[in-house]
Amino acid sequence: MNETEKLVEKIAEGIQEKKGKDIVIVQLDGIENTICKYFVICQGNSPSQVSAITDSVRDYVREHTGNKPSYVDGLRNAQWVAMDYSDVIVHIFLPETRKFYDLEHLWEDARLVNLPNID
After folding, report:
1. Is 8 contained in some domain?
2. So what's the pLDDT on residue 29?
3. Cα 46 to Cα 72: distance, rounded to the nearest angstrom
4. pLDDT digit string, tens, across residues 71-91
5. CA gap 32, 23 in Å, rounded
6. Could you tell me if residue 29 is inside a domain?
7. What CATH number does residue 19 fall under?
8. Domain that holds residue 22
9. In angstroms, rounded to a whole number, what is the distance separating the alpha carbons of residues 30 and 37?
10. pTM over 0.85
């Protein structure tokens, strides 16, 4: 497992720590002219859960890999938070905002990996 794949794994675990739902890993590494290698997309049920997931990812990834996001945006209203880890961008949505933007399907040739929800 390379460094980026380990980062994706730890991001997903950080999301699951706060019961983030419907995690999708979008693999962009084989597609030209993309801004990163992976998107990790999930959702929380409320702005406070979106914020809690963001904090969990930040803390979990730092603890297990030493990486910190270079930028985090969207915490003010917590409908869509983006965390930039350079090769990986994490998107944490409220359900209706996620449905509207439908990031999973921007690249038709991207490989999607759906992780099971943990209850």
Report:
1. yes
2. 86
3. 18
4. 999 999 999 999 999 999 999
5. 24
6. yes
7. 3.30.460.10
8. 3-102
9. 8
10. yes
